[in-house]
Write a structure and sequence with these properties.
about 20% strand; about 675 residues; eleven-stranded mixed sheet; four-stranded mixed sheet; alpha+beta; 21 helices
Length: about 675
Amino acid sequence: MAEPQTTEPVGEVDDASALSPEQLGFMCGIEVHQQLGTGKLHSRQPGTLYDVTIDTVPADWHRFERKLRPARGEGGAIDIAARFETRRNRSFVYVQSPNAGLIELDDQPPLDHDEDAIQIALTVSALLEAKPVSLLQTMRKTVVDGSNTSGFQRTSLVATDGVLQTDGGPVGIDVLCLEEDSARKLDTLSTPNGEQVIYNLDRLGLPLIEIATAPDVTSPEHAKVTSMALGRVLRQTRKVRRGLGSIRQDLNVSLACGDRVEIKGCQDLNWIPRIIRLEMSRQLHFYRLANELRTMLNLSPLPPDRRSDDDQLEASVAASVAEHLPLNLHDVTSSFTSCESKMVVGGLAKGHVMLGLPLAGLNGKFGTKTMDKEGSQLPRLGRELAGAAKLAGVKGVFHSDELPAYGIEQDHVDGVRNTLSLSPEDGFILCLAPKWQAELALESVLQRARLAWHRIPQEVRNVVVKKGAPDDGTTSPMRPLPGGARMYPETDVPSIIIDEGRWQATMASLPMSDQARAERMAQFDVSSDQAKQLVARELDDIYVEHVADLPHKGWASVVLENDEADPALCAMVLTVKERGDITRESMNEIITAFEGQRPSLDELAAFGEAHGHKPADVGDLASTIQSIVQERSDFVKERGMGAMGPLMGVVMQAVGAADGKVVSALLREAIQNTME
């Protein structure tokens, strides 16, 4: 490991793309969570996901409500993230989908591991050259945000010490785990007593492979490359789920002058470099702000590298800051009785109060909304404080640097400053909410404000999303970074021995690599694009299994167009088409008509004839086409081969059921003859 940095970090906060990872002591690791294509991990319920929203949940799906409390870990401590969640005063409503039984409701002990899920996890471990554990021991991971009905997530360590080969160099694999997926959030409601979060239980318990890399990612761009490489390895098994939400990437990012932050919600891999660079900019900004604030209080500056921090000194700084910024809440509601702001008027009408928190010396330090060179919001303390408040369930706060605004006039600001007895150097934060919630929100704000004198806090952050996509690549706080206290043994799930025989059997039956699959497809007379699509969409095995005597390119087209249909049925329909009993254009319709059935070839042919799908006689077809071309000979002579398109539609309408390729060939010949 390199020696701690001693020189001040360089770079402009408003130009994140120009920041140098190497100069800033950049470190990054990636966590990938991949759903497996099996049933649920501990309940044997099917892994069906239901496409429902809060507005379309069937009325007959049962609902029940719970509140969760944290459990102490093996050491007797309550995890910091769990302790924080309990202060948010949230309740949870669970919608019971058809694949959620007593185990999902936490009313029955879990079953042992799904065997297929274990084998997939071992296969991925082997592909990553990881070393399996000898005993698969399930642990409980405390999670009290409501996403698990039990208040914990079951997770099992499967393998360690692997390696992923990437174009940017090898990346170590620290751990590979098998764990349960969480419930899906449907909605969040505000109530007088706190937030109510509504979850759907269809996803709860689906098996996930969690892979955590070592901090070997060398740059934001390398992070994208690494995520793509991990995805390719997982898909080699052909037993993982595809589609939106089936794989999730978390980024662990730090600079020497900052600290470790975990970023969730990185669904679009193309956004990863931008998200990381903006986090680099954020950490650099708050390092510089911390030293500016320390100068204000005549405190020792932070060194450029966190490894050089003195714990005793930092404790002394924390004590000084706590004395400088005491918890001193004031009810300033009376200053807003004449305020015409819609937000204020609406809140006061509901019985909310406006509480004020004075923050000495921070006037002008909160900042206002400003964009960087690429249109992303620049980091600012005010936004961090608002994020801390939102974790208490409020929609936001007002701070002195942005007022007057939002319908709050200067006289209201002056009233607050007078009530709080502020000097020109002092700032303040306002929160409009039920009293208990406003107090909790401002306590969170105060804690985050005090941390401004230190490096950024270790925490979990989430990418800011609007309309299903990242807004600008910036992030917001979710919760403190969890510690070791969140883990304790699961006593209801038996341990599993991973012996040498099982591992050797796994090693002997590894799936084909993408390269091997591409080489196999090269044996068939298909286009390069068809070959790539078949492999990428995981359809090449189906293609090879059923191709037999079918035309290679034709079978490729059928498979790609009907990727969710029964391949045996598709092969039969193509066979009937090759016999000349149905047209090419009717094939997809016939496949749909016989979905879930196993008809004979003759039955398919009879259906085609009965529904007008039998190809026209070639002799009659040629005569009809010749007649149409002769009637429009002037048009053909004027347009030449450009007449093909317009006349193709005329011919197809005239002949009805006909093979498009045959029609095209005959029409081309007729046009050429007319032009001679």
